[in-house]
Design goal:
single chain, alpha/beta, Carbamate kinase, 9 helices, 11 strands
């Protein structure tokens, strides 16, 4: 049997809430270590790994808009939260001896490299994990859209969206015990039915550029390796699914 991974280069999308674990605010470093160990095992398979991390455990821009504050300012504050999470992940990876680089779309040279596409590609080719922070540098865009954009720019083979559930369901599985899990979905079906996978901008970017999306539960040990190996876990979103 062919033991080579199915994907050569992946874009892993992590939510800030995932890094928060069971905490109401901040970073759960036990979760960071658990994620870092999974990334290490996939890296050892010879896979090039880029990560985009959210900042919802620190600050969420749209929350300030809900109470009357400026949305753009709130989004910039949220971008700074993603840098905090990226640095935590970088430290967790480096503690395992894994070379990692944080690159930010907002320049802050004391703590992160500026995001430059060709430099990011070079890091990946040299076996470094690249953590992409600061969103895409602009307000009104989600980190899902950033993940899709960076996946296209870096020519990733797949966007792997890590969640707290094991795929995409037709209802909230935590509230509805009859919720049915989708094994495969077409991009257009997701868009037309308003299924909560990624926002429409991110989905359209992936659809237009042929980048598949796999939604899976990262916190279940070994799942990341299984996705990279091509095992049919989670939910696959792709053309003709």
């Amino acid at each position: 049997m062919d033991s080579r991974p199915r994907y050569r280069r992946i874009l892993l999308k992590l939510s800030g809430e995932a890094l928060g674990g069971h905490k109401d605010f901040g970073v759960d470093f036990d979760v960071v270590r658990k994620i870092a160990r999974q990334v290490e095992r996939v890296h050892d398979m010879g896979v090039e790994i880029a990560l985009v991390v959210g900042g919802g455990n620190i600050f969420r821009g749209r929350d300030v808009a809900d109470v009357g504050f400026d949305r753009a300012t709130g989004d910039y504050m949220g971008m700074l939260g993603t840098v905090i999470n990226a640095l935590a992940l970088q430290d967790g990876l480096e503690k395992l001896g894994l070379p990692a680089r944080t690159m930010s779309a907002i320049q802050m040279n004391q703590v992160a490299e500026p995001y430059i596409r060709r430099r990011a590609v070079r890091h990946l080719e040299k076996g470094r994990v690249v953590i992409l922070a600061g969103g895409n540098g602009n307000p009104y865009f989600t980190t899902d859209t950033t993940a899709a954009l960076r996946a296209v720019e870096l020519e990733a083979d797949v966007v792997m969206k890590a969640t707290k559930v094991d795929g995409v369901y037709d209802a909230d599985p935590f509230r509805d015990p009859t919720a049915t899990k989708f094994q495969r979905l077409d991009y257009l079906e997701v868009l037309n039915r308003g299924i909560d996978v990624m926002d429409s901008t991110a989905l359209t970017l992936c659809m237009d550029n042929g980048v598949p999306i796999v939604v899976f539960d990262l916190l279940k040990e070994g799942n990341m390796e299984r996705v990279v190996s091509g095992d049919p876990i989670g939910t696959l979103v792709a053309t003709g699914s």
